[in-house]
Amino acid sequence: MNTAAATLQDLKTLEALESNVRSYSRVFPAIFSKARGSIILTNDGQKIIDFFSGAGALNYGHNDHAIRAAITDYLGSDAVVHALDMATPAKINFMETFNSTILQARGLRYRLQFTGPTGANAVEAALKLSRKGTGRHNVISFTRGYHGLSLGAVAATGNRFYRKPAGAALSGVTFMPYDGYLGPTVNTAEHLRTALMDQSSGVDLPAAILLETVQGEGGINVASEQWLRSVQTIAKDVGAFFIIDDIQMGCGRTGDFFSFEIAGLSPDVVVLSKSLSGYGLPLSMLLIKDELDGWAPGEHAGTFRGNNLALVAGTAAIDIYWRDEFFAQQVKCTGDFLHHQLLAIAARYGNRFAVRGRGMVFGFDCLAAQTADTITRKAFEKGLMIERCGPDNQVVKFLPALTIDRETLNEGLAIFDKAVAETMCRSRS
Ligand SMILES: *Cc1c(COP(=O)(O)O)cnc(C)c1O
């Protein structure tokens, strides 16, 4: 059997044995065997450029060899891998490194809570803490927000595609319009303030206001700094926890370690996951302001809290990339370049596309799901992995590794450019 036939056979195995719920193996129908940096190799030897980055879990690319050295050393030394939330040198190292290099360097002070390994686990913990701390049940979330798919998190997620299968009443969340949702001239923060200050608005006072500073799954919607500061003030005024879900936009994606640094925010709780371990290993964490750490010991538990291997990788990632300003500057610079390239591609087609984003996350809004679908499919056939987002999956989502070199970035952009040209040429004829 040649390799292409073998791949087809293996994909048939997947089809026969794996639940119908599988998703990315449909969108990217290949078998991925090796990866390094921004390049993935398939079983049949095709080279794929990765602009997807594990949905934001691989900000430093695949298999960063300096991080890999730290975890292979750790495994080779028979150090403790699983210890629930017991103290280990790996955990203490991570906490000290995170505290000094990330928090103190930014004048921030938080306690760290290690939650279960997924982003949704951490969101659940954040919401529970805010409800416990305020004695309130309602949470304000925003249109097109995405916070995970467990019951509490999906209640705060906008998309009906995810809400419907929950099969239970998704209660305890009131959705308010995100920045820009009602057009560029409506200040939706004022709308939120009015609803929360009015005794008769029908909106219960919230335990928390939960938001992403840039909505990832929701279509790369960028909130303005002014809007973010207004919402923070509103949260303070109504006695609600101000929670930033930085699961996808944190760990450098927007150019700073935290996506809210640009607006000078001081969130009560910050939710981190995805790229926190720096290696694609599951690790999630809450940052909690001292005075709001209202947990009783053991009150929120979980078997896989702060997995030591992931903590070792996370410590290495911070040591390698965040000791000084250089990496953040580089990310912003590469991001500016990417932004200009995308604007140039869009400009060739009049008003058919819109480009949004900041740092190194951009949405190329095709305004039609079919167009985005065709473009990303063609791109994959040509060797570029890139996914879609937005309420109708109409936005092509650029999420290359923050470490990508200019040559690979250009190569990927050239493939994308070609995929757009072919798609538009076909739709015109
Ligand atoms: C991915 C994501 C989540 C959910 O994380 P999981 O690990 O998939 O549970 C929550 N919030 C945001 C903003 C995300 O991007």
Topology (elements, then pairings):
Elements: H1 3-17, H2 24-27, E1 32-36, E2 39-42, E3 47-50, H3 53-56, H4 65-76, H5 89-103, E4 111-114, H6 119-134, E5 138-142, H7 151-154, H8 160-163, E6 173-176, H9 188-197, E7 206-211, E8 214-215, E9 221-222, H10 225-237, E10 241-245, E11 269-272, E12 285-288, H11 308-321, H12 326-347, E13 354-358, E14 361-365, H13 369-381, E15 384-385, E16 387-389, E17 395-398, H14 406-428
Parallel strand pairs: 3-15, 5-6, 5-7, 7-10, 10-11
Antiparallel strand pairs: 1-2, 2-3, 4-12, 8-9, 11-12, 13-14, 14-17, 16-17
InterPro entries: Aminotrans_3, Aminotrans_3_PPA_site, Dat, Ectoine_EctB, PyrdxlP-dep_Trfase, PyrdxlP-dep_Trfase_major, PyrdxlP-dep_Trfase_small
EC number: 2.6.1.76
GO biological process, one term: ectoine biosynthetic process
Mean pLDDT: 97
Count of DSSP strands: 17
User: How does CATH name the architecture of the largest domain?
Assistant: 3-Layer(aba) Sandwich
CATH classification class of the largest domain: Alpha Beta
Going across the biggest sheet, name each strand in turn.
Answer: 4-12-11-10-7-5-6
Distance between the termini: 40 Å
